[in-house]
Amino acid sequence: MDLDAGRVGRVGRRLALLIATYAHEDAGLRQLTAPAHDAEALGETLRDPDIAGFEVTTLVNQPHYEVGRAIGELCRDRRRDDLVLLYFTGHGLKDDAGRLHLAMTNTRRDNLAFTSLPAELVDRALADCMSRRQVLILDCCYGGAFPAAGGLTKSDGETHALEPFGGRGRTVLTAADASQFSFESDGELRGGTARSVFTHHLVNGLRDGTADLDGDGDITLDELYAYVHEKVVDEMPQQRPKKQADVEGQIVIARNVHWTLPAHLANSLDSPIATDRLGAVDALARLLRIGNPLVRERATAELERLAEDDSRRVSAAANEVLRSQIREPRDAEPPDTEVPHVAEEGPEPAEPSVDTPASVTAPVTAPEQPVVVPEQPAPAAAPGWTTRVDGAVRAPLIVADGVLYVCGDGGSDSDGHHLYAFDAATGEQRWRLTTDQPVRSTPVVAGGLVFAATVGGQLYAVDTLSGTVMWTYKNANRQKAAAAVAARGPWVYFVGGFYLRCFYVTDPHERWHRGVGMSDLQWVAVTADQVWCGNTGRNAYATDAVTGKKGPRLALRNSWSSPRAVTEDGLGIHIVGEHDGAVYRFEAGTGTQVWRCATLSPVRFSPVVADGRVYAGDGDGNLYAIDEATGALRWCVSAGTALNASPAVADGILYVGGMDGKLFAFDAATGVGIDHLPTGNAIQATPAVAGGLVYFGTDGGTVHAIRAIVNGSGSGSGRAAAV
C-alpha cells in the first residue's frame, strides 16, 4: 500500500536505517538490554506495507566504520522526494570539547575521535543528502550512565541533543535532552521484554494508530512527536522528548490502519434530526479533501448513502459534494486534518453567515533622540491590487497557502464584523464570514482551518477553502473578554477571560484548560514546548504545551505585559512592557530574564524577531532594532508619526504603517529610510509579506497589495518597486 498515493509529487522511496548498540568492548560502558528489542519492534512496524512501507535496514552491535558506511549508502543517490529515516538507540557520549558522539560496539571512551560515530559526521552526511524529507530519531540521552529508579539510563557525559543536527528539510526527534536521561523499562510493563520508554510509545503510536491525533487516517511527524511526548512524560516525568524541524509542509510517517469514522460524525450520520445529517455532509466533504484513500473511500460511501436521504436538503447537499468530486479531481496535496462537529460552552453563539462570491541581565539605557526620516516624494507606480472590506482593518493580516486573511472591524455595527479570505495574487474575494464581535488579534492557520478569536471571547474554526464554520467555542459569561489564539502541530491554544485552553485542531472538545491569574488574559504564544500567555495584571505565565501543567511565572515591574514575539529557535520569548518603556527577553524554559532594553516610550504591540534582531515601534513613532542575543540597541529612528501596529520584516526590509496613513519601508539592518506610500487613512494593522507582495489594510477599510522592495544587499540601497 502506497502511503503517498493520491499525493501528487510524492512518489519517492521510503528508506530507513535502524542502528542499535547494546554490547561494548569498553568495560566502562554499561551494557544495555533495550536497543535490540527497540530496533526489532520499530523495524517490524516501519516495514509493514499497510502501516509505513519503508525499506528497512537494521544494524545491531556493529563497529563505527560499518555504521558509517551504511549511513553513507542511505544518503547516497537520493532524490529530493525520497523519505530518509535514521534511527539510533544506545549510548550518547561527549568529548572534552563537548562534541556529541554516538557509541558503537568498538567505541572506547579514551579514543572517541577514531572509534565512535561523531554527530558532526552524521550531520554532514544528511546535509549532503539530496532528500529534503529527512527524519533523525535518537533514543539516547546525554546526562550520565547511572542506574536510576525504575530503570537504567542510556548516556555518558552531558551535552545538548539537538545542537549538532539542524538542517534544511530535516526533522529531529530525541528521547531526551540536555541533562535528562532516556530510561529503559525493567520488562514488567513490556510483556517481559525490556524496552525503551520512548521507543515503546513510538512503536505503539504507529502500530495501533493512536498517534493519529486529528483522525484523518494519516500520522504526521508532528502528531507522532506530540503523542510520544505526552506518553513519555506521563510515564517518566523526568524525561522530556524534544523536536527540531526545518521542513516545508507535513511529513506523513505512517497510516492509521485502524481508522474509523470519528464518534461524533457517526452519531450525526445516525441522527434522526435532518440538520445533524446535513452538518455531517460538510464534515464528509472535508474528509474527501484531506483523507488518505481509506478515509476517502469511507466518506464517499457515507455520502452516497446520504444522497438517498429522506430529507431533500440532505440528499441535495450530498449529491452536490459527490458531483464536485467528479468536476474537480484531486490535483493537489491536501492538508492533514479532519473535521468534527460544533461544540461550545455557555451561551449559544450568534449564527455565522458565509458569503461566497463567484542569562546575564544587561540593562540598556534609553537611547538618544532618534534620527527623523526626511520626507521623500511618493513614486507613481501603481499597487498590485486594492479592494475594500466592511469596517476598519485592525487585526494583523496573514497569508497562508496563497490566501490573504483580513478582519474587518465594524465598530458599533453588530453586523459589520467579518473575516475575509482573498486570493493573495489577484485580490479576488473567496469568502466572507460574519463574526459575533470584531477580531483584533492575529488569526492563525492550522490543519486546513483558519482560527480567529473575537473580543467577545468566541473562537471560530473556519474551513480555509469554503469559509464554513467547522466548530466554535464560546467563553461563558465573558462577553467583554479579550481573546487570542495560537497553534502548534495538532493543537490550538485559546485565551479568553482567565483561562488558557487547549484543543485538538479539528476537535472542539477541550484537551485541557488552566485558570491563569485573576485578570483577563490578553495574548498567547507557543515556544519550543511551552505555551506563554499574559494578562492585564502585569504577569506572564508558562504552561507545558502537552500536559497543561503550570510552568514559570513572570512579574513585570510597573508594567502590563503586551503581545510578544518568540525567538527564532523557539527557546526564548520577548515581551514588551506597556508602561515602563522596555523590551525584555526571557529564557522560555525557566523564565530567567536574559536582558532588558529601555525604549523612549512604551511599546504596546508585539515585537518582531528576524535575522538576529528584535524590532519594535512605540506610540511616539520611534522604531528600534535590538540585538536578539545581547539586548544591545542597534539603531533607533523616528517615522515622524505614531505607530499603532507591529512592523513586518522580509528580505532585509522593515515595513510599518503609521497613523498619518503612510506605509514606511526601512532597511532592517541599518534603519535607513527607503520609501513611503501615502494612503489617506491611518494604518493600525500589522502588514504581511509573501510571494513578493506587501499586504496592508487601513482604517478606511481599504486593503492594498504592492510589490515588495528588492534589496538583495540589505544595505539600504534597494528601491521600492511599487511603494
Descriptive account of the structure:
With 723 residues, this protein is of the alpha+beta class. The strands form twelve sheets. The chain has a six-stranded mixed beta sheet, with helices on both faces. Strands 14, 17, 18, 19, 20 and 21 form a six-stranded antiparallel beta sheet that branches. Strands 15-41-40-39-38 form a five-stranded mixed beta sheet, with no helix packed on it.
What is the CATH class designation of the largest domain?
A: Mainly Beta
Low-confidence region ranges: 5-10, 143-167, 178-194, 327-366, 372-382, 712-723
Chain-averaged pLDDT = 79
Q: Any idea how many domains?
A: 3
CATH topology (fold) name of the largest domain: Methylamine Dehydrogenase, Chain H
Residues in helices, as a percent range: 10-25%
Number of strands: 48
Distance between the termini: 52 Å
Outline the biggest β-sheet: 6 strands, mixed
Rg from Cα: 27 Å
| Spatial strand order of the main sheet | 2-1-3-7-10-12
- Please report the number of helical segments: 10
Which second-level CATH architecture of the largest domain applies?
7 Propeller
Helix/strand-derived category reads alpha+beta
Strand content: 25-35%
| Corresponding CATH superfamily of the largest domain | YVTN repeat-like/Quinoprotein amine dehydrogenase
Pfam family, one: PQQ_2
GO molecular function, one term: cysteine-type endopeptidase activity
Protein name: Outer membrane protein assembly factor BamB, contains PQQ-like beta-propeller repeat
